[in-house]
Amino acid sequence: MATTTSPRWKKPLIICALVGGLVGGGYVAMTKSTPAPDVTFIDLKGQKVSTQSLRGKVVMVNFWATSCVTCVKEMPQMIETYNKYKGQGLEFVAVAMQYDPANYVINFTETRKLPFTVALDSGGDIAKSFGDVTLTPTTFVIDKDGKIIKRYVGEPKFADLHKLLEKELAG
């Protein structure tokens, strides 16, 4: 019996599908608030945004990939969430995973008209700083004091996410 190995690009798809299927709209919560790492995101235009510069705002950091079915599925709701709360001080950074080709990310960002900061993690350092993120989508909610208050692995339940954002933005 011959064995075959999957091409490298299939692994992220398989992981994404497993997370989407297993988590099923659920999330993994942090048990206590943890300081967000000090990182600098570089957006698609080369602008730098640091976690330090985002202090005083509620921030969502979403690790995603263009090859991740669940990521693509949740993106319209992420856009809707950002548009709903940006006027109240929400910041949003979508971090494309290291294995995602830059031209795919740029094309996705432009065709979907993503209204928030999109950053490339070409070295994988940002994902490592956030606890070695390997599963997509993974989304962190960071409070105004720079503490991670929630980590969602898989697509979040958006009604619950909105309640959390409303509470943090008001506080």
UniProtKB/TrEMBL annotation:
Residues passing through the membrane, by range: 12-30
CDD domains: TlpA_like_family
Lineage top rank: taxon: Bacteria
InterPro entries: Redoxin, Thioredoxin-like_sf, Thioredoxin_domain, Thioredoxin_ResA/DsbE_sf
Keywords: Membrane, Transmembrane, Transmembrane helix
Domain Thioredoxin: 30-170
Coiled coil: none
PROSITE patterns for the chain: THIOREDOXIN_2
Gene Ontology terms for molecular function: oxidoreductase activity
Official protein name in the record: TlpA family protein disulfide reductase
Source species: Massilia polaris
